[in-house]
């Protein structure tokens, strides 16, 4: 009898622990991968009423909301008002938002993104009016492609465009002055050239200092020799948004694409494109100023398996193309 009681109690304990673990997991995982909900908390609404509205809006389970708010003694902390709730938040973050109207979120902008990708990511994770934020962001960043540093930032969830853009650009300028400016004289390149080349390199390489510096050496060698740079990424940039894939970089470049009439097309226009095509990270900026000055290569390509192959002439390059099949 005693053993049976012990087993029952043990079972109940395990059940409670399992339920607790499940609830903790539910409260700490993002509601969805994307999307937003406009949500109104009216003055005088009870926690149960707010919970039901949250559940009806697809934000979170009403029971979870009510239980968590009561357990944390937050009933009196929920503030009336109109909210924009990004569905990338966790339920716990939603409760925090409803208490304060704002809190800090972590934004991670990736190396090689163009400004439109920055915008799409920001909209998915910030509690802002998408239309107004988008319009102002594109105005504020009109001449800042390449100068918005990719990094992880903690920002208020309702940060305005001016402050976000200023943060991204200020971080770039600080990183550049600390790490790149001291090395710039020996490179023989201007700041503008360095940033443009780094943006090309960011899209043309899979990374690693050796590969980055070698490709940088090839591109600069072509540039100084009056060659067309022939960088696929510049064509992708010129082609812009691809409706069928919902991406800003076309996956497969066709022969007809190489003839696009654009100042960014380095297959038909000599020299560098007029501006950066993406926002480079520190490793890529460093690779440009530390480029291989005596590289024997003129060509490079990435094989189907991701390996890079270099060539000293067009014959070698054409031979290397076999690895693309």
Task: State the gist of this model.
With 325 residues, the chain is mainly α. It has helices at residues 2-28, 47-56, 62-71, 91-100, 115-125, 130-140, 161-180, 184-187, 191-204, 209-224, 232-239, 282-289, 314-320, and strands spanning 36-41, 81-86, 104-108, 152-156, 299-302, 308-311.
pLDDT averaged residue by residue: 90
With strands numbered from the N-terminus, the spatial order across the biggest sheet is 1-2
Global morphology: elongated
Task: List how many beta strands DSSP finds.
Answer: 6
Instruction: Name the poorly predicted regions.
Output: 16-22
Largest sheet: 2 strands, antiparallel
Helices, by number, come to 13
Number of domains: 3
Share in β-strands:
5-15%
Could you explain how this protein is built, in words?
The protein has 3 domains: 72 residues, 2-Layer Sandwich (Dna Ligase, domain 1); 72 residues, no CATH class; 137 residues, no CATH class. It contains 13 helices and 6 strands. The longest helix is centred in the first third of the chain and has 27 residues. The radius of gyration is 26 Å and the shape is elongated. The N and C termini lie far apart (72 Å). About 2% of the residues have low confidence.
Blueprint of the fold:
Layout: H1 2-28, E1 36-41, H2 47-56, H3 62-71, E2 81-86, H4 91-100, E3 104-108, H5 115-125, H6 130-140, E4 152-156, H7 161-180, H8 184-187, H9 191-204, H10 209-224, H11 232-239, H12 282-289, E5 299-302, E6 308-311, H13 314-320
Antiparallel strand pairs: 1-2, 3-4, 5-6
Helix pairs in contact: 2-3, 5-6, 7-12, 9-10, 9-12, 10-12
GO cellular component, one term: plasma membrane
Family: Belongs to the transglycosylase MltG family.
Catalytic activity: a peptidoglycan chain = a peptidoglycan chain with N-acetyl-1,6-anhydromuramyl-[peptide] at the reducing end + a peptidoglycan chain with N-acetylglucosamine at the non-reducing end
């Amino acid at each position: 009898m005693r053993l049976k009681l012990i087993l029952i109690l043990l079972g109940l304990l395990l059940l409670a622990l399992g339920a607790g673990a499940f609830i903790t997991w539910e409260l700490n995982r993002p509601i969805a991968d994307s999307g937003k909900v406009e949500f109104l908390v009216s003055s005088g609404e009870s926690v149960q009423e707010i919970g039901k509205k949250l559940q009806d809006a697809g934000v979170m389970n009403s029971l979870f909301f009510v239980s968590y708010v009561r357990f944390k003694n937050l009933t009196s902390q929920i503030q009336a008002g109109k909210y924009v709730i990004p569905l990338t938040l966790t339920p716990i973050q939603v409760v925090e938002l409803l208490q304060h109207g704002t809190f800090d979120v972590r934004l991670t902008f990736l190396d090689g993104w163009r400004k439109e990708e920055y915008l799409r990511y920001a909209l998915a994770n910030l509690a802002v009016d998408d239309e107004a934020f988008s319009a102002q962001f594109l105005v504020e960043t009109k001449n800042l492609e390449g100068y918005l540093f990719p990094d992880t930032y903690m920002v208020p969830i309702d940060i305005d465009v001016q402050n976000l853009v200023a943060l991204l650009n200020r971080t770039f300028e600080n990183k550049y002055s600390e790490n790149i400016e001291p090395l710039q004289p020996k490179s023989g390149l201007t700041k503008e050239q360095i940033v443009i080349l780094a943006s090309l390199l960011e899209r043309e390489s899979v990374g690693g200092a050796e590969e980055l510096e070698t490709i940088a050496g090839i591109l600069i060698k072509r540039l100084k020799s009056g060659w067309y740079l022939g960088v696929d990424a510049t064509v992708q940039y010129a082609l812009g948004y691809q409706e069928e894939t919902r991406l800003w970089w076309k996956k497969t470049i066709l022969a007809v694409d190489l003839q696009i009439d654009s100042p960014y097309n380095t297959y038909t226009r000599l020299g560098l494109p007029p501006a950066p095509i993406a926002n480079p990270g520190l490793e890529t900026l460093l690779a440009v100023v530390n480029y291989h000055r005596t590289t024997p290569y003129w060509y490079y390509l990435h094989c189907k398996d991701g390996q890079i192959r270099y060539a000293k002439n067009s014959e070698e390059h054409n031979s290397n193309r076999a690895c693309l099949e």
